[in-house]
Amino acid sequence: MDNASDSAADTRSTCDRVLDGLARLCLIVAGVLLVFLIFSFGWLVFGRYVLNDTPTWIEQSSLLIVVYITCLGAAAGVRFNSHLSIDFLREGAPRIPRAIMHAVADGFVILFGAFMAWQGWQMMLSNMGRPIPMIGLSESWRAAPLVICGVLLVIFTAANLIRRLIPGARAGD
C-alpha cells in the first residue's frame, strides 16, 4: 500500500510539473509577445515621426498580440494562484465553509473556461474566411486565444480543485 501511495504522489507531482511547465510556457510566450509589442510600437513612433511613413500593420497586429498576452497571462495566473482575488472572507471562514467556497469558485471558473473555449471555437469557425485588415490573417486568429485560455482555465482549475480535494496532495502555491 505504501508503494501505491508513493506512486500516486509521483503521478501528482509529475502532473503538477507538466502543468507548471505549461503555465511557464504561457508566460514565456506572453513575455516574448510583449517584447515584440514594445519594439513594434517603437517602430511605429519612429516611422511616424522620423520617416513620416506610418507602418499600417502595427495597429492591427498589436490588437491581436494584446489578446494573446492577456489570455495566456490569465491562464498562467490561475495555475499559479497569482490572479486578482479578494479572499479575506473565505480565508477567515472555518475549514468546511472555506472548502465549499473554494469548490464553488473553482466550479464557476471551470464553467467560465468551458464556455469561453466553446464560444471562442464558434467564433473561430464563423470568421475563418474574413481577413484582418492591414495584416491579412484570418479573423479566427483573434478568437484562438479565447479557445486556448478557456481550455487552460479548465485544466488548471480542475488540477487545483483536485489538489485541494484529495488528501495528501501537494499544498497550494
Q: Give Rg in angstroms.
A: 21 Å
For the sheet with most strands, the description reads: none
Number of domains: 1
The residue fraction in helices comes out at: over 70%
Order of helices and strands: HHHHH
Q: Could you name the ranges where pLDDT drops below 50 across 5 or more consecutive residues?
A: none
Total helix count? 5
Structural class: mainly alpha
Proportion of residues in β-strands: under 5%
Q: Determine the N-to-C terminus distance.
A: 28 Å
**Mean pLDDT over the residues:** 87
Compute the number of strand runs. 0
Tell me, briefly, the overall form.
Answer: elongated
Structural summary, described in words:
This protein is mainly α. The protein has one domain. Helix content is 77%, strand content 0%. It is built from five helices and no strands. It has helices at residues 2-49, 57-79, 88-92, 95-126, 140-165. Helix 2 runs parallel beside helix 5. The longest helix has 48 residues, at 2-49. It is elongated and about 65 Å long. The two termini are 28 Å apart. The mean pLDDT is 87.
